[in-house]
Amino acid sequence: MTPSPIRKVLSSMRQHRVQSLLMGGQACVLYGGAEFSRDTDLVVLAETENLAHLNAALNELQAKRIAVPPFERRYLDMGLAVHFRCEHPEANKLRIDIMTRLRGVAPFLELWQRRTTLLADGETIELLALPDLVQAKKTQRDKDWPMIGRLLEANYLQNRDNPTEAQIDFWLKELRTPALLMEVAARYPQACQQLQSARALLALALADDAAGLGAALKVEEEAERLADRAYWQPLRVELERLRKEARTQSPPTS
User: Fold this and answer.
1) Residues 93-122: what's their mean pLDDT?
2) Residue 104 in contact with residue 121, Cβ under 8 Å?
3) Any idea which of 76-90, 112-126, 191-205 has the lowest mean pLDDT?
4) Co-location of 202 and 89 in the same domain
5) What is the spatial distance between Cα 8 and Cα 58, in angstroms, rounded to a whole number?
6) How far is CA 138 from CA 2, 86, 141, 153, in A?
7) 33 and 87: one domain?
8) Strands 116-120, 40-44: parallel, antiparallel or unpaired by DSSP?
9) 131-161 burial string, b = 16+ CB within 10 Å, else e?
10) In this structure, what CATH number is given to the domain that contains residue 79?
C-alpha cells in the first residue's frame, strides 16, 4: 500500500500537471523489490513550464529546500538532485528529491514514453519502467545492488511462466542471481547466445558455471560502481563549492 504522505505528494503533482515519474525506493516498493521507503524520489521534465508546475506543487506541499543545490534549472541540468522537506499536514516531514537527469538513463521524454502506469489505492501512479529503474540503481552505493537483485528476481518469478521476448531479453541482460541467470540461459539458449556480444558473462551462464558466473557478476558490478564514482566526482566538487558558499553567506549566530 502506498503510504498516505506519498499519496499526497503524488496527488499534488497530478493536480498541478507536473510531468514526473516516481523512482527510487517507492518505485521499488511498487515493483515488489522493497517493503518500505520514507522518501519520494521524482525525475521530472526539465522544461520551463513543467518546472513552474513543479514549483506550484511544492508550494502546495509547503516544501522547503533542505540542502544544496538551490532549486535552479542549471543545477538540475548538471545532474544534481534538489532536496525538499514537506510541512503540509498530510505529508509532514516527508522528503522529496527532484532530479531531471540520471546517469546512464535515457532523457526524460524517452522515459515517459515507456513508463509504467499503476493503480494503487485508487490513485494513478506514473513510474519509471523497470529496466530504467534498474539502470538508475546501478550506483556506487552498497544498498542499491541487493535492491537490483530483488527487483529482477521478483520480476522473473512473477512472469517466468509466460514471458514476452522483451522480458527474456531483459532478464538475460540484467539478472544478477547466478542460479536464475543459468535457468534463463538453459530455457532460452538461442536468445542467450545472441546477447553474448552485449554481455559476455552469458557464456558462463550457458556453460552452467556458477562460480565463474558469480565472479563475473562482481566484476560487472564493480565496473558500474567505478563509472558512477567518475560521473559524480565533478558533481561532488560543485556541491562542496555550494556548501562553502552557503556557509560564508549564513548570518553569524548570537
Assistant:
1) 94
2) no
3) 112-126
4) no
5) 11
6) 24, 28, 8, 16
7) yes
8) unpaired
9) bbbbbbbbbbeeebbebbbbbbbbbbeeeee
10) 3.30.460.40
Could you tell me if 30 and 60 lie in one domain? yes
Alpha-carbon distance of 132 to 59, in angstroms, equals 29
Distance in angstroms (rounded) separating the CA atoms of residues 60 and 6: 14
The residue range of the domain holding 31 is 4-133
Q: Angle CA(128)–CA(134)–CA(139) in degrees, nearest 5?
A: 115
Q: How far is 133 from 57, CA to CA, in rounded Å?
A: 24
The stretch 164-193 carries a mean pLDDT of 98
Tens-place pLDDT, residues 189-207: 999 999 999 999 999 999 9
Q: What is the mean pLDDT of the chain?
A: 94
Q: Is residue 244 part of a domain?
A: no
Residue 247 carries which side chain, given as an amino acid letter? R
Q: Residue 123 in 3-state DSSP? A: strand
183 assigned to some structural domain: yes
pTM of the complete model beyond 0.85: yes
Q: What pLDDT is stored for residue 2 in this prediction?
A: 46
Assess whether 206 and 158 both reside in one domain.
yes
Residues 160 and 217 in one domain: yes
CA distance 12 to 67: 22
What HEC string does 199-226 produce?
A: CCCHHHHHCCCHHHHHHHHHHHHHHHHH
User: Would you call 40 helix, strand, or coil by DSSP?
Assistant: strand
CB 92 within 8 A of CB 5: yes
> Could you tell me if 100 and 81 lie in one domain?
yes
